[in-house]
Design a protein that fits this description.
Elements lengths: L1 H22 L5 H12 L5 E2 L1 H8 L3 H13 L3 E6 L2 E9 L1 H21 L5 H17 L20
């Protein structure tokens, strides 16, 4: 219980801390992940929708939702792939590039502050242990977690 409780609490603290940066720009953290991924792709800052959702490890439905909001905000645009008329590319707009370039150093500084209690060695150890835990679980984290008995029948 100590581990799960502390990880859950840290997650909420991290989400609040990180959210402040993106809230000020009217952007959700998931939206930032998309524009930052396009930025990391390098010029011409574009990827296929499949490449994006695989890189971000989210569902295609979640990706469509994020892209709709980002396109509405003028941060990305969908365009036809010149190599395949049936395919689309997602491209970072000039406004999207400017926003990610503005937010990235602020985001990195926020992450640094959130982790300042840990030395570089402790951070590496923590990252390794968290990765090990994530790899041991299935995608939704529940497949290997099965209670020995059904306690839901007690309520009522």
């Amino acid at each position: 219980m100590n581990v799960i409780g502390r990880v859950s609490r840290l997650c909420r603290v991290f989400e609040r801390g990180i959210g402040v940066t993106f809230d000020s720009a009217g952007l959700a953290p998931g939206g930032f992940d998309v524009i930052a991924t396009l930025r990391r792709a390098g010029e011409p800052y574009q990827l296929s929708p499949t490449g994006l959702f695989e890189s971000l490890m989210i569902s295609s439905a979640a990706m469509t939702n994020r892209l709709d909001r980002l396109e509405e905000a003028g941060l990305v645009r969908r365009r036809r792939d010149p190599r395949d008329r049936r395919a689309l590319l997602i491209e970072l707009t000039k406004a999207g590039l400017e926003l990610v370039d503005e937010l990235l150093p602020i985001h990195v500084a926020t992450e640094e502050r959130l982790l300042e209690a840990y030395s570089p060695t402790e951070r590496a150890t923590l990252a390794r242990l968290l990765r090990k835990g994530l790899l041991a679980l299935d995608e939704d984290g529940a497949a290997r977690v099965s209670p020995h008995r059904d306690v839901s029948k007690r309520a009522g």
